[in-house]
Amino acid sequence: MTGTTHTQHVAEQRALANIRHASMEPVLGRYRLLNLCGTGGMSTVYRALDLRTSTIVAVKIISIIQDRERTKREVAAIRSIDHPSVVKMLDGGAHRDDYVLVMEFVEGHTLRELLDHNPGLTVRQAVCIAIEVLEGLAAVHRVGLVHRDVKPSNLMITDVQRPAIRILDFGVAKRLCTGRRITGAGTTVGTPTYMAPEQLLAMPVNASADVYSVGLVLWQMLTGVDPTHHGLSTLSGKIKLWRSLSFDAQCRDIGRVFEIVAQMLHPDPLQRLPTAVAGVKQLRMTLAGSDAVPRPRTYDQTDRLVAASSGAAALDY
User: Fold this and answer.
1) I need a labelling partner for 34 at 20 to 30 A (CA). Which of 17, 147, 222, 285 fits?
2) Annotation says 300 is catalytic
3) Mean pLDDT for the stretch of residues 223-244
4) pTM given for the model
5) How far apart are CA 176 and CA 43, in angstroms?
6) What are the φ and ψ backbone dihedral angles of 96, each rounded to 5 degrees?
7) In this structure, are residues 66 and 87 in contact, taking their beta carbons and an 8 Å threshold?
8) Which of 50, 91, 98, 149 is catalytic?
């Protein structure tokens, strides 16, 4: 299927979905679906009208739920999160054979869209964005949840000048679809490129897995390199990147920021920065002199450094 044909097919499917849902009764008795915003895996997101308050909201319909009682408890925990960097969940419940999550509708552009047009941000911009994301994740972690899918497309920029960040989809749909504990082993959930190594291996995860993901997003913002094109969906690729960062930080004065990135991307969760709060503290200390921090080398340059280094110790993981 050509790119044009595929685009037309997607547009037709969205149009059909809009027509089909326009005739449906209001979701949960109060949300009128207006148009399709996006689809993925087992969920679909709509722009909707709250008929009781006359406000626009985002409605996510999840197609597979294995444990509705656990879902209710987890949704209650998410609704308790009140942080400016986390999208607010407003409602949730069963609808026909699906489960519905209702969230505030956030206007803006995703970090992915920003990086597509401006791949390399300044050090200060990148650090400020990472701090906001980590602060939001700290609020998520405090209610016992782990995002597990932090990536640029899940981060909305609502104010480019500040910048102001909102975490849109913090792993709720994926966790509900698996029907497993958020810290359980045996299920790989998330986007492989941005996953922590232990998450990629379907091992138990905690807050440090989110720290890893933010570290990779920060590396992407600093270097302007899209990690999806550099084999980082594999364990060997993740170890290779970490070696390049560690070797670079030891052998050249590239600034404290890149040293912190290396700590966040350590393949061993026991050696990694353990919490989002720890990441915030470390990064805040770099802001005073961040304008003077040299831009790090590209992935290809650091890759050549590692290849040329015969003294790099092997990592057993």
Assistant:
1) 147
2) no
3) 89
4) 0.79
5) 11
6) 55, -125
7) no
8) 149
